[in-house]
Amino acid sequence: MSTRPDIGDLFPAIALQTPEGGSISAADLRGKPAVLFFYPKDDTPGCTTEASDFSTLLPQFTAAGVAVLGISKDPPAKHVKFTAKHGLTVPLASDAETDGLADALDIWVEKNMYGRTYMGMERTTYLIDAEGRIASVWRKVKVKDHAAAVLAAAQALRS
Prior knowledge:
The chain has one domain: Glutaredoxin (3-Layer(aba) Sandwich), CATH 3.40.30.10. It is α/β, with parallel strands linked by helices. The chain is about 30% helix and about 25% strand. Helix 1 packs parallel to helix 4.
């Protein structure tokens, strides 16, 4: 088990695939704060609510000068369908690589549901400052009101 990066640590610089066929990394986001929210799976109830909430608040994040990016292990093509089906405006990226960003953050974890053990994404959100350091971390996120709490923290970071 690796050590989880925490507040004050540099965010790992691992590239992610975008639905448009490009890539994005933490280095691409330097120069302004960013929110990276990791979620388990496209088109599931909690993940849809979370992505919708961040989409609703995206204009406020943008006004505060804060980039937002949703990340899961789903492939880019699935992100395209998820975005279209739910009218999402928040950008999404795919961390499909083995030993990818979720592994570096130690949030690709063993889960247990209905007696079945499997590997999955631990719902986690990072607020990264303009220099690429972790300013805040929310682990094992409960979706209700989460995006609003992250917006408040992001706005506070900018002031």
